Amino acid sequence: MSVPAVFASLIFFASLILIYTDKINRTIVALAGAALMLVVGQVLQFYDLETAIQVIDFETLGLLMSMMILFAMLEPTGLFEYLAVLAARASRGSPLRLFILLGAITAAVSMFLNNVTTVVLIAPVTILICAILGISAVPYLLAEALFSNIGGVATLVGDPPNVLIGSAVGLTFNDFIFHSLPVAVMACIGGMLLLSYLFREELSKKPQNADSVMGLNPAESLNQPETARRVLIVLGAAILLFFVHHLLGIGPAFVSIVAMSVALIWVRPDMEEALKRVEWNVLLFFGGLFVMVGGLEYAGVLDIVLGLLEGMSHIDPVWFGVIIIWMTAILSAIVDNIPITIALIPIIQGLSETGMNITPLWWALAFGVGFGGNGTIIGSTAGIIVASLSEKTKAPITPRLWNQRGLPVMVVTCIIASVMFVILYETF
Amino acid sequence: MNISDCMKRNVISISETATVREAAAIFSKKHIGLLPVVDMDMKVIGVVGLRDLLDLELPDFLRFVADVDFVHDFGAVESTRPSSDILNGSITVLMKNAINVNEDCGLLRAYAMMLQHGLHDIPVVTDEGILVGVASRVDIGTSILTSWSEVN
Question: Chain B contacts of A125, Cβ < 8 Å?
Answer without folding.
Answer: 61, 65
